[in-house]
Design brief:
Largest sheet: none
Number of helices: 4
Radius of gyration: 15 Å
Helix content: over 70%
Length: 112
């Protein structure tokens, strides 16, 4: 089972990789590509959380997993907002991350 600390560690690695890639991106298309990669990593992390939540019988631990995922989505959204402000010409969609956050909030509310 994956712990909430492991989820945060994976998130930190994903955001660090995203930030490094975005720093070197020159064209708006490159920004869009990196945003898509970040969204993909968040979707993978969501899948890990689903499996982890299924592997525990402790409702408090399940709630903690989903609260952690809500926070991870919030961090990603904040980073995307910063990017959008710094690069207004880039096409940055929040939709997938917002959908993930909504799903995580619903799962947390169900187990809290």
């Amino acid at each position: 089972m994956t712990t909430t600390q492991e989820l945060f560690s994976y998130e930190q690695a994903a955001l660090a990789s995203f930030s490094a890639a975005v720093e070197h991106a020159r064209a708006d298309g490159e920004f869009s590509h990196e945003v898509a990669r970040l969204e993909g990593r968040l979707e993978q992390l969501h899948s890990v959380a689903v499996v982890s939540a299924r592997q525990t019988d402790d409702v408090a631990q399940v709630a903690a997993i989903w609260q952690t995922m809500v926070e991870i989505c919030e961090h990603a959204l904040a980073r995307l907002r910063e990017l959008a402000a710094a690069h207004p010409g880039a096409s940055i969609s929040y939709d997938k991350v917002l959908d993930l956050r909504s799903d995580c909030r619903a799962r947390h509310a169900f187990h809290a």
